[in-house]
Amino acid sequence: MVKVERKQSGSEGLRCGLLGAGMMGREHLRNLVLFEDVKVVSICDTNEAMRARAQELVPEATLRASLPALLEDELDALVVATPNYLHAEQLLAILEAVSIPVLIEKPLVTRLEDVFRLRSAIQAHEAFVWVGMEYRFMPALQAFAAQRDQVGSVKMLSIREHRYPFLKKVDDWNRFNRFSGGTFVEKCCHFFDLMRLFLVAEPVKIYATAAQDVNHLAERYGGEQPDIWDNGYVVVDFDNGARGILDLCMFAEGVAFEQELSLVGDQARLDCRIPGPFHSKQASAIEAEIIFSPRSPPGPIVETVSVPELALNAGSHQGATFFQHQAFWQAVRSGEPPLVDCDAGFKAVLMGLAAQASVSSGRAIQVDTQAFELTPI
After folding, report:
1. For residue 276, which phi and psi values (nearest 5 degrees)?
2. Which residues lie below 8 Å from residue 190, measured CB to CB, with a gap of 6+?
3. What is the CATH number of the domain that holds 161?
4. Which residue range is the domain that position 65 belongs to?
5. pLDDT, tens digit, 9 for 90 and up, residues 141-174
6. Rounded distance, CA 101 to CA 109, Å?
7. Residue 248 belongs to a domain
8. Is residue 62 part of a domain?
9. What number of other Cβ atoms are within 10 A of residue 376's Cβ?
10. Are residues 152 and 176 in the same domain?
11. pTM (whole model) above 0.85
C-alpha cells in the first residue's frame, strides 16, 4: 500500500480536500477541524450556498466550483460526500486524475452496473479507497463487536432502526429511488454491512417487503411524488447457516433508542441499544447500552457506553464520524489498508439492491457476492 508523503512542512499537516458540502459534507468538516495534524485546504461544491456554509466552518479553505478545479490542488487525501447518484462518475474521475487516498460516503454506488465499471479502476489505483460505513465506528458497536464471541456459535442477528423521516437535502435528490438507489441502498447499506461484519458470512438469499405508507406523500417536486419507501422488513440467509433480519421504520422518531441489535448464539444473546441524535444531545442524555444475556446462569448484564462530548457534538452519528476519521487518517499516515474497503462497500450495496428487487418483484433473490449477480427465485 502506498504511503502518502507530505509535500509541505510538518506544521501544515496533512492536506484534505472535500467534495460535497451538503449536510454530510459539513459533518465531515466539523470533525476534521478537531484533528490538529489535518488541514482542510479545499472545499468543492457546485452550489454556492453550500460552499458559503462550509467556509463558515473552515474560513481558510479555498473554494472550488468544479471537481477538475479541486483535483488541481495539492492534496494528501480527499473526502467525497456528494449525492449518491454522482459517486460512480466522480470516483472514476478522481481515480484517473490523482493517486491519493479517498474516503467516499456510502453507498459506494447506486446501480449494479457501476460495480463492474469501478472495480478495475479501484484495483489499479495506487492509494486506497475507504468507504464511509461510519456505523462500524460507533463506540457502542465497537463494544458490541468486542463481545461478539461470548454468545457462542452465532445463529441469528436482528437489526431494528426506528427513526425520523429522510431529511431535506439539496435539490431533494433523496426523495427519489433513481437518485438515492432506494431506501434499502441509501439508508440500509449500513446495516447490511454490519450483518456481514458480525456474522462473518456472505448473503445467499434475500427476501424483503416494504412500502411508502406515511412519509412524503403530499410532497411534489416538478409535479412528481417521491417514491422512497419508509418502512419494511428484510430477511437474509447467509452461507454459514446464520440468518439476519432488518426492521426499518422511518416514522418512529419518538423512541428512545434509534437502533437496536440482537446477536444470538447457542450460549447467549447480546444486545446493543443506541439512542438517536434527538435523545443523545439533550440535557438528560440517554446513553447507549450493551446487554449480555447468557443462557446459564440466566439474567442480563447491562453496561452503558458513553461517547466523548467533543465527538458527539461534531455530528449526528454517536461520534462515529470522528472515530472513522481517526482510523482513516492513521491509514493515510501509515499506508495501512483501509478498514472498510470497496469490496465491503460493493457487497452492502448488492444486498440493498437485492432487497429493492425482492420488494418490486415479490420474490426472493439469490445473491452471488463473488460474481455480483442477483437472480430472482
Report:
1. -80, 175
2. 106, 133, 135, 348
3. 3.30.360.10
4. 10-133+336-340
5. 999 999 999 999 999 999 999 999 999 998 899 9
6. 18
7. yes
8. yes
9. 13
10. yes
11. yes
Which cell numbers hold the place of 316? 449526528
For 316, other C-beta atoms within 10 Å of its C-beta total 17
Q: What is the pLDDT of residues 5-49, one digit of tens each?
A: 333 334 568 999 999 999 999 999 999 999 999 999 999 999 999
237 contacts 155 by C-beta, under 8 angstroms: no
- Measure CA of the first residue to CA of the last residue in the chain; give whole Å: 41
- CA 5 vs. chain centroid, Å, equals 28
User: Which triple of cell numbers denotes residue 203?
Assistant: 448473503
Query: Are the C-beta atoms of residues 3 and 334 closer than 8 Å to each other?
Result: yes
Exposure letters 317-332 (e unless 16+ CB within 10 A, then b): bbbbbbbbbebbbebb
Q: Computed over its alpha carbons, how large is the radius of gyration of the chain?
A: 20
Q: Tell me the three state secondary structure of residue 304.
A: strand
Give yes or no: residues 162 and 250 share one domain: yes
8 Å CB contact between 230 and 216: yes
Q: Answer yes or no: do 224 and 112 share one domain.
A: no
- CB-CB contact of 16 with 35 (8 Å): no
355, three cell numbers: 432487497
